Amino acid sequence: MKRNQSTEDYLENILLLSRESEFVHRVDVARKVGVSQPAVQKAVKILTASGFVECDGMHIYLTKKGAEYAERIYDRHCTIREFLKRLGVNERDADADACEMEHVISGATFEAMKAFLEKESE
Fold this sequence. Notes:
elongated, 122 residues, Arc Repressor Mutant, subunit A, Diphtheria Toxin Repressor, domain 2, mainly alpha, 2 domains
């Protein structure tokens, strides 16, 4: 599957919202992502068609496929953020940079970062 930053951002934010509350609403997604509700509505249609989410009219739920993909994206974000922090980057910049980098780094680079962090933790 070709990676898409917008799709990944929506999935990651729906995942985080679902950890905070039993129900995820479009308005919550709009606030978290920083877009309009119509933009969320359009994204939800695309995510539904791709099999990543389901909606019951009011609530958005990650499917198994969507949850697995969102977890991988969030793991990338957390790993990259921690890697940057260990290099001395401040928390705010590390988080912002990780948000961008998670979509563009290669699998090999990500695995190298992960291995470095694991080795440093030993």
